[in-house]
């Protein structure tokens, strides 16, 4: 009986394959020329190694989503602030019934079954051994190792799919040819300092930056927010944990006007957690929490901890956290992230899929902010290069990239502030005038080292050097654009609080609003961001690829928001 059952299953499988000859004609879908810099081939991946792949299905109306996003985000639009609901957004991205059926038919033909891995159903997950993946995708899965860090990954330099599925049905499969990024954006330790008193005068800000300094520099109010429905989300990755005891010490020292018991809520995904042992306190997580709770006075703050069980390959939870928030009926109105990677480590197709996910959240009224990076024009961190290295996701036009400044009289560009022009994303309409003006003033400087037609970043900047934090009960100073993003996010959250109190919508996707109001920023006109054996880009009047539009003036931003 067992033998008969196996025979029937085999006959059924052969019949299915013969019934679908259309899937036999394969065509290369994605390919890259050579191994990325810093990686070495260690030989073929073991045939029985299990691969967890995710298939991006073609969305129903990407252009419609982008148009809707800009319509509700452009201050000159009649629909400004009329953000979309979850269902309205999903209407644009949900794949057609035929798309889902065709892709699942292909998988079933090969004995595979998928599961849906995104709220709108535009991502499918499927697992298979290396041997089957090599055959199914006409690939050559290989073990690659980064020679500096030793980090290994199984990847293929090209893969193919049935020609009938290309473009119309499947957008991409990952993480096949996208390599992991060995460099992460993390703050840089400076040196231990004696804590600054809360009565410190602004002149002290030249050597140590505290919440009081930021309030004085940017006009940030000290009065507490009042709207409980307004929320600020802080992304946590790489087992960086936010410590409550350190936050209490920070508030006692630097914000004694608000309760030292003020806390934050926790959300987790991909096995995330937030242990409270002093030894497990993370410098990045502490920085982000202390400068959101400590600057966005009274705004509810949520720490979103992404664990190591991420399902998005080398993105290491970047897409998972967005899909997680897209599945929530009420995501936070602001999300700040102080991590990133070099743009060249991610395929253009995948970069656009992630960027599109930011557009989905933006259309629902969420402001997404990222640190621009700490390597000047050489990328997320300082490295050898001959042409400038843009960072990801700063090149995405549907998020706000935050660079760094230093000093107070006047502020100047921090030399580590990553900035430049994307090699994947073209320049969006909202910044054409500002960027074109800069390029004319730049002339032939750095000619051939960057993409003059790409999306320029960062968009804005705040202080990013000598920033005081508490770690394991000890006071330290840190530097990096990791400091800048949570500071700017706090300012936007405070403006959102006043908008809610006035019965208005939150700012949502920020960039069209920001570029429409350049006068709301303190223009930074000195400094540069060296790298790749050059002086990088110089800061100039107006927007520049070091500090963006400049640093915020709270009162002017509030007025621009109609308050």
From TrEMBL:
Top enzyme class, one word, equals hydrolase
Where in the numbering of this chain does the Peptidase S53 domain appear?
208-563
Cellular compartments per GO CC: extracellular region
List the protein's name: tripeptidyl-peptidase II
* Keywords assigned by UniProt, alphabetized: Calcium, Glycoprotein, Hydrolase, Metal-binding, Protease, Secreted, Serine protease, Signal, Virulence, Zymogen
* Catalytic reaction list: Release of an N-terminal tripeptide from a polypeptide
Cofactor details (free text): Binds 1 Ca(2+) ion per subunit.
As given in the record, the signal peptide range reads 1-19
Which one of the record's GO molecular function terms can you name?
A: serine-type endopeptidase activity
Q: Which cofactor does it need?
A: Ca(2+)
EC no. given is 3.4.14.10
Q: Tell me which species this is from.
A: Rickenella mellea
């Amino acid at each position: 009986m067992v033998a008969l059952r196996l025979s029937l299953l085999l006959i059924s499988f052969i019949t299915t394959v013969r019934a679908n000859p259309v899937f036999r004609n394969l065509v290369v879908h994605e390919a890259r020329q050579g191994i990325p810099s810093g990686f070495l081939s260690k030989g073929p991946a073991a045939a029985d190694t299990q691969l967890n792949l995710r298939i991006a299905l073609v969305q129903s109306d990407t252009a419609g989503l982008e148009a809707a996003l800009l319509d509700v985000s452009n201050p000159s639009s009649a629909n400004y602030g009329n953000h979309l609901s979850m269902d309205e957004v999903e209407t644009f991205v949900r794949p057609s019934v035929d798309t889902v059926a065709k892709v699942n038919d292909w998988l079933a033909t090969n004995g595979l079954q998928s599961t849906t891995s995104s709220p709108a159903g535009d991502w499918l997950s499927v697992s298979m051994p290396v041997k089957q993946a090599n055959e199914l995708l006409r690939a050559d899965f290989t073990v690659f190792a980064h020679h500096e860090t030793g980090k290994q990954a199984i990847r293929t330099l090209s893969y193919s799919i049935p020609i009938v599925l290309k473009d119309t049905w499947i957008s991409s499969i990952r993480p096949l040819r996208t390599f992991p990024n060995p460099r992460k954006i993390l703050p840089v330790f400076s040196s231990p300092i004696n804590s600054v008193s809360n009565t410190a005068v602004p002149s002290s800000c030249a050597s140590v930056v505290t919440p009081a300094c930021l309030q004085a520099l940017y006009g940030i109010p000290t009065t507490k927010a009042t709207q409980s429905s307004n929320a600020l989300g802080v992304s946590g990755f790489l087992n960086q944990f936010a410590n409550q005891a350190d936050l209490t010490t920070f508030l006692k020292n630097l914000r004694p006007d608000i309760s030292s018991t003020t806390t934050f809520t926790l959300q987790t995904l991909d096995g995330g957690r937030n242990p409270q042992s002093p030894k497990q306190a993370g410098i990045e997580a502490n920085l982000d929490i202390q400068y959101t709770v400590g600057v966005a006075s009274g705004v509810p703050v949520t720490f979103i901890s992404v664990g190591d069980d991420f399902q998005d390959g080398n993105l290491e939870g970047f897409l998972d956290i967005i899909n997680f928030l897209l599945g929530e009926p009420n995501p936070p109105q602001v999300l700040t992230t102080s991590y990133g990677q070099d743009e060249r480590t991610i395929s253009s197709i995948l970069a656009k899929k992630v960027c599109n996910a930011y557009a989905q959240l933006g259309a629902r009224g969420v402001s997404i902010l990222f640190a621009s990076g700490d390597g000047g024009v050489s990328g997320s961190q300082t490295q050898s290069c001959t042409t400038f290295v843009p960072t990801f996701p700063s090149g995405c036009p549907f998020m706000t990239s935050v660079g760094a400044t230093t000093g107070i009289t006047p502020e100047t560009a921090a030399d580590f502030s990553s900035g430049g022009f994307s090699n994947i994303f073209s320049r969006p309409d909202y910044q054409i005038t500002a960027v074109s003006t800069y390029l004319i003033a730049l002339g032939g400087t750095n000619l051939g080292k960057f993409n003059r037609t790409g999306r320029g970043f960062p968009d804005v900047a705040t202080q990013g050097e000598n920033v005081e934090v508490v770690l394991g009960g000890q006071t330290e100073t840190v530097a990096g654009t990791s400091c800048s993003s949570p500071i700017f996010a706090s300012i936007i959250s405070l403006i959102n609080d006043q908008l809610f109190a006035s019965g208005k919508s939150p700012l949502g996707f920020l960039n069209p609003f920001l570029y429409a109001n350049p006068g709301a920023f303190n223009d930074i006109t000195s400094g540069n961001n060296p790298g790749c054996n050059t002086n990088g880009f110089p800061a100039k009047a107006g927007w520049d690829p070091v500090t963006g539009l400049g640093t915020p003036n709270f009162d002017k931003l509030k007025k621009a928001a109609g308050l």
